[in-house]
Design brief:
Bound molecules: ligand C2E, magnesium ion
CATH class of the largest domain: Alpha Beta
Structural class: alpha/beta
Shape: elongated
Number of domains: 3
Radius of gyration: 33 Å
CATH architecture of the largest domain: Alpha-Beta Barrel
Helix content: 55-70%
Largest sheet: 8 strands, mixed, barrel
């Protein structure tokens, strides 16, 4: 979306520039023409043998025309000026929201810093990032996302003082400059005001959308003495606000820098991890609740980090997704899982399906299908033994193109599951239309089916719906015997969770497949 908006902005600016050049040329032409005409008229007057009155009349006419031409030229000159102003406005404002853009913000911030320095005052920079905006953009489309950004922009502007600047940095990020602050508490109050202003839902194209915001705050001169540092530190504080539960605000603290550095070092490490063979796959059994046997396994990536030990996906998959590294990593996971599934079969173990988690970026990659075909061929795994787990947001964003990829996958014979079902926005009509095999009920619902009646109702309803749509349904995160009993009573097909077994290495899983008994790990 950023690219589209940027391209749109570029086009508008180019058009304004052309307009200005065009107008300028027209002014010159009008002036030249009117001067030519006046000279011609004077010459004509001189050479004609007519009366003095005739000559005066002609001169008067010529003068009148010159006056009109001058007025026209003035008007055009004004238009040139307006075009210049438009061009200037476009260069300094965001096309979508019409808020000041990064350039203008930097300019104002630099001025505000100089002023605060002279007057010995403090100022605040707030970095705002919408929570789960990508989710809404992915599932409801860019048009809705754009309108939501406009609505958010309006509320932000409505919530600040006249002297404050609300700018859009791009995407779902906004930076606010509060040039005149007394105490840190005042800034905290302003941040609270922002959270309150954004709390009511936004009604957009019949969607009632709730969007939270995470805010990071840096203060001049305490947290930085130049615009770049202040924005960077407010950004770091914003990340902290997100990590500590979203929809809140955090002031920058020096220790936060260390975390940001750590994130960068994870990214740098990820770039090397593939060639250093530091990734491993663990496999977690999925159990058929009627037969009690392992019917498939989910491949879950782990990173054997040289310094930090075994890292869980939560510690590096989001960073891999942000940096695009998930593409080569995902290809490795797919290949490894297929080779392993085939190796278990070759070892004479009962054939099982292997499920691989697929990120949005991988699913949308142009060579996704080609890569899958090649991997299946190379590993000699029959496509029916491979399942892809996709989240609702992956599927619902641009559902039309998802539909064609899904049908191509289904035609190959690969199975498809919707992961974390219930946490995103699924359109039920797409559920019917997509060639999906399985719904995986998110563990957040399963967690409390025996303690929270609402969750129990949701889980029962999802199971009934899956049955009605002739889909297989599996509950994730099953941890207790009571949960198993509930799920069996509701005729849920499969279960996965610590109750049946934690994710384990390939050798341990081979033993489980051999003995055929789901392990009873302590829980
Ligand atoms: P997911 O696909 O929903 O996987 C289920 C997660 O729940 C796994 O966490 C699993 O270890 C955990 N889990 C299983 N049973 C229980 C239980 O009974 N209780 C609790 N509390 N948790 C349970 P893990 O391995 O940390 O993976 C987290 C997420 O990371 C996965 O969620 C998946 O979205 C992502 N992920 C894992 N491996 C890959 C991968 O190879 N590629 C991609 N793109 N994402 C991956
Ligand atoms: Mg999964
Ligand atoms: Mg899941």
């Amino acid at each position: 979306m950023d690219d589209e908006v940027a391209a749109h902005g570029r086009e508008k600016r180019a058009a304004a520039r052309e307009n200005a050049v065009d107008l300028r040329e027209r002014v010159v032409v009008v002036r030249e023409r009117s001067i030519d005409k006046r000279e011609r008229d004077i010459r004509a007057a001189e050479t004609t043998q007519g009366t003095r009155d005739d000559q005066i009349g002609m001169l008067q006419q010529a003068n009148a025309q010159l006056v009109i031409a001058t007025i026209d030229a003035h008007k055009l000159a004004e238009q040139v000026q307006t075009a210049h102003a438009d061009q200037d406005h476009l260069a300094h404002h965001d096309v979508l929201t019409d808020l000041p853009n990064r350039i203008l913000l930097n300019d104002r911030l630099a001025h505000a810093i100089a002023l605060a320095h002279r007057q010995g005052k403090r100022l605040a920079v707030m970095f705002l990032d919408l929570d789960r905006f990508k989710h809404i953009n992915d599932s409801l489309g860019h048009a809705v996302g754009d309108k939501l950004l406009q609505s958010v922009a309006q509320r932000l502007v409505g919530g600040v003082r006249h002297s404050d600047t609300v700018s859009r940095q791009g995407g779902d990020e906004f930076v606010l400059l509060l040039p005149d602050i007394g105490h840190a508490e005042d800034v905290a109050l302003s941040a609270q005001k922002m959270l309150i202003a954004l709390a009511p839902s936004h009604l957009i194209d019949q969607h009632d959308l709730h969007i939270g915001v995470s805010i990071g705050i840096s203060i001049y001169p305490d947290d930085g003495r130049d615009a770049e540092t202040l924005i960077k530190h407010a950004d770091i504080a914003m990340y902290q606000a997100k990590e500590s539960g979203r929809n809140n605000y955090k002031f920058f603290e020096q220790e936060m820098n260390a975390r940001a550095v750590q994130r960068q070092s994870i990214e740098a490490g990820l770039r090397l991890a593939l060639e250093r063979r530091e990734f491993v796959l663990h496999y977690q059994p999925k159990i058929n609740l009627l037969s009690g046997t392992i019917v498939s396994v989910e491949a879950l990536i782990r990173w054997q980090h040289p310094q930090r030990g075994l890292l869980e996906p939560a510690q590096f998959v989001p960073i891999a997704e942000d940096s695009g590294l998930i593409l080569p990593i995902g290809r490795w996971v797919l290949r490894e899982a297929c080779v392993q599934a085939r190796a278990w079969q070759d070892a004479g173990l009962p054939p099982i399906t292997v499920a691989v988690n697929t990120s949005a970026l991988e699913f949308r990659a142009g060579d996704f299908l080609q890569c899958l075909r090649a991997t299946l061929e190379e590993s000699r795994l029959e496509p029916g033994y491979l399942e892809l787990e996709l989240t609702e947001s992956v599927l619902m964003r641009d559902a039309a193109s998802a539909d064609s990829v899904l049908h191509a996958l289904a035609a190959l014979g690969i199975k498809l599951a919707i992961d974390d079902f219930g946490t995103g926005y699924s359109s039920l009509s797409y559920l019917r239309q997509f060639p999906i095999n399985t719904l995986k009920i998110d563990q957040s619902f399963v967690n409390q089916i025996t303690s929270n009646p609402d969750d129990a109702t949701i889980v029962s309803a999802v199971i009934s719906m899956a049955k009605a749509l002739r889909l297989c349904v599996i509950a994730e995160g099953v941890e207790t015997a009571e949960q198993v009993a509930f799920l069996m009573a509701q005729h849920c097909d499969e279960g996965q969770g610590y109750f049946f077994g934690r994710p384990v290495g390939a050798e341990v899983l081979a033993i489980l497949l051999q003995t055929g008994v789901p392990p009873a790990f302590p829980h």
